[in-house]
Amino acid sequence: MSQFFKIYSDNLQLRLIKRAVQIIQSGGIGAVPTDCCYALVCQLDNKDAVERVRRIRGVDDKHQLTMMCRDLSDISLYAKVDNRQFRLLKSATPGAFTFILEATKKVPHRLSHPARKTIGLRVPQHSILQALLEELGQPLIGTTLILPGDDKVLTDPQEVCDRLEKQVELVIDGGACSLKPTTVIDLTGDEPQLIRQGCGEARLFGL
């Protein structure tokens, strides 16, 4: 049975943030609001939780999970970033973008793309998610909350709870989110490449 926490973005309840982080640290999976749609998240280094996230989503290890970071200093630990890439990242973070970058050795092999050795990273702007990351002290692994057989993301917290109460340990009601996921930009080549158009404005990258 999921724990259901109502947290207000403009008046964060630290007690609930701490309890939510404890649930994640104990191996739990959370359904949390982001500056785009809701997402499934778990602890970075918990192999079992990561595999459970994949099962809930119905995806295999070729599906690129996203590392959610507090700021650009976290990104530099987990991705190889040159000066050009850093300038692009700085211009669009925090925000509604996921960036595909070459993974460093600090990224567990199970989290990077098995063929390309890349990782998806983002710096979210949502205050609740930022508070979770701050309290946790490390990135979260996450993925867009769209369930097998659905053609749209889940955005209503009560529906999230009703459909996932036996599969996740935590649902945070931060209000309704967008119906769109992040915009995904691949920065591994000479020029940025648009992989998925979502909430973020791709024209920031000339796309």
Could you walk me through the main structural features you see in this protein, from its secondary elements to its overall organization?
With 207 residues, this protein is an alpha/beta fold. The protein has a single domain, classed as Alpha-Beta Complex (DHBP synthase), CATH 3.90.870. It has six helices and eleven strands. Strands 1, 2, 3, 4, 5, 6, 7, 8, 9, 10 and 11 form an eleven-stranded mixed beta sheet that branches. A hairpin with a 6-residue loop joins strand 2 (30-32) and strand 3 (39-43). The longest helix is centred in the first third of the chain and has 12 residues, at 14-25. The mean pLDDT is 90.
The number of helical elements comes to: 6
Q: How many structural domains does the protein architecture include?
A: 1
The succession of helices and strands, N to C, reads EHEEHEHEHEEHEHEEE
User: If classified by CATH, what would the architecture be?
Assistant: Alpha-Beta Complex
Low-confidence stretches: none
Rg, alpha carbons? 16 Å
Q: Residue share in helices? A: 25-40%
Largest sheet: 11 strands, mixed
The coarse overall form would be globular
Q: What is the CATH homology-level superfamily?
A: DHBP synthase
Number of strands: 11
What integer is the average pLDDT?
Answer: 90
Structural class per helix/strand content?
Answer: alpha/beta
> In angstroms, what separates the terminal alpha carbons?
44 Å
What's the short story on this structure?
The chain is an alpha/beta fold. The chain has helices at 14-25, 47-57, 72-78, 83-92, 127-136, 157-164; strands at residues 3-6, 30-32, 39-43, 66-68, 79-80, 97-103, 118-122, 140-144, 170-173, 183-186, 193-196.
